Backbone:
């Protein structure tokens, strides 16, 4: 998956607002903190790219849902 | 009419899935449906395979980890592998709250069996509150994901068809989404929305849509 630079920046901006006590379960027994998730997105590794895919899907979904 | 459920408990994720599954077991017990509860270390290949072969449960629910081709149990021991173990489950109603197993395993069971398979085509993920891990059912971040996904099993045990159970779970996801999108909802919980949309989207079903436990 190729991630546009703008998408990465949008997701990083959104992640700043995550509560500090939020942990993301990412499958196979791993859960990661807010700061760990931010690092994965900054590094654009597999976990980071997968999370960006979720956020992009969400943005497309709400655009469809609200007819924009 | 029997029900088998696997509930490994070897990490935070499986502990949450297991704890929320207690609500499902309670419904089965209320309905007088015998439950084979493979919890913690008993979610192992030997025990689960033996129960599947000998008891032939009508409804099977897997909690845990997995991939497109494998469902795992305690400490990631493979319980069901594509191409090896489908005969044990393909004629039952299966609900796999497991990452990605719908994509190949679910499709194979649906194409080759006489039952139904409800699962997730990609990674099922949810948020956890780090201060609530000892009380999963009080975790307000995890609750929408696990309550909505619980609806598949609860609906099946209450007599719904595979399609109806899928629809009710989808509706539960939708209700949580609408509640969070409402302008009166707590802003601090709106970060849950992307994954709620995601988990709703990747939940799929295969096989006979009209089948229900009472038919089998």
Residues:
């Amino acid at each position: 998956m190729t991630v546009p630079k703008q998408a990465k920046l949008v997701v990083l901006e959104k992640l700043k607002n995550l509560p500090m006590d939020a942990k993301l379960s990412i499958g196979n027994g791993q859960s990661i903190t807010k700061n760990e998730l931010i690092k994965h997105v900054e590094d654009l590794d597999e976990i980071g790219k997968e999370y960006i895919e979720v956020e992009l899907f969400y943005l497309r979904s709400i655009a469809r849902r609200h007819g924009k | 009419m029997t029900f088998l459920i696997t509930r490994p408990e070897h990490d935070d994720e499986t502990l949450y899935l297991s704890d929320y599954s207690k609500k499902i077991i309670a419904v089965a017990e209320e309905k007088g449906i015998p439950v084979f509860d493979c919890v913690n270390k008993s979610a192992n290949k030997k025990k689960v395979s033996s129960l599947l072969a000998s008891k032939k449960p009508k409804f099977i629910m897997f909690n845990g980890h997995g991939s497109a081709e494998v469902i795992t149990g305690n400490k990631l021991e493979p319980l069901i592998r594509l191409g090896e173990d489908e005969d044990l489950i393909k004629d039952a109603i299966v609900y796999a709250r497991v990452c990605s197993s719908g994509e190949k395993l679910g499709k194979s069971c649906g194409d080759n069996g006489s039952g139904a398979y409800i699962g997730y085509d990609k990674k099922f993920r949810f948020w956890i509150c780090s201060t609530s891990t000892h009380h999963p059912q009080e975790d307000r971040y995890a609750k929408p994901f696990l309550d909505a996904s619980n609806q598949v099993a609860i609906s099946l045990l209450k007599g719904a068809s595979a399609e109806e159970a899928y629809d009710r779970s989808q509706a539960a996801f939708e209700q949580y989404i609408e509640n969070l999108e409402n302008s009166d909802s707590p802003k601090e919980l709106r970060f849950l929305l992307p994954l709620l949309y995601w988990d709703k989207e990747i939940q799929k079903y295969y096989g006979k849509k009209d089948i229900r436990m009472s038919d089998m």
In short: Chain B has a mean pLDDT of 96. Chain B has one domain: 3-215. DSSP finds six helices and nine strands in chain B.
